[in-house]
Amino acid sequence: MSERRAHKPSPTTPAPVSGASEIVLSGGASVEARNLHWSFSRSGGPGGQNVNKVESRATLWIPVTAITGLSLAGQARLRLKASAHLVADDRLQFTADEHRSQRMNKDECLSRLREFVLLSARSPKVRRRTKPTRSSKERRLESKERTSTNKQQRNWQSDD
Question: Which listed residue, of 70, 85, 125, 134, carries a Cα 20 to 30 Å from 62's Cα?
Fold first, then answer.
């Protein structure tokens, strides 16, 4: 009989990725691979023997300050837009377990990070207040007049 091993949960502080290559995110932002902290665990749900044996769920932790090429305002937007992924000590956490392969789940985590960085890299367009045109004011008043007339016609008046 083979010995069954109990599943051990991943450590709370995952080990950083070895290597010093730079990963280009989007919007001119990048991150060094050594700042990406990965953790792997067994994925839940159906899948039979594969899901019981293979640690395919990928969890990525990255400090917001480790993303270079993003302005301070961009980092603030990133914290705001990805607030559901922001964990203690100013780190972002992304988890993926959609795929059977660990590599594909790692790629999925990175693509989610890229989406948030792309959204926060661009500063929002400043809305300029504009004055309503004369014709738009007239259309609005005509519409109000029509609505008022319709409502007045609904009233029942007796012949008394």
Answer: 125
Given the candidates 3.90.1520.10, 3.30.160.20, 3.40.1130.10, 2.120.10.30, the CATH classification of the domain at 22-121 is: 3.30.160.20
E strands, 20-101, are 22-24, 30-32, 37-41, 57-63, 86-87, 91-96
State pLDDT tens for residues 40-71: 888 776 667 776 677 888 888 888 888 888 88
Three-state secondary structure call for residue 21: coil
User: Is residue 62 classed exposed, middle or buried when 0-12, 13-18 and 19+ CB atoms within 10 A define those classes?
Assistant: buried
pTM above 0.85, yes or no: no
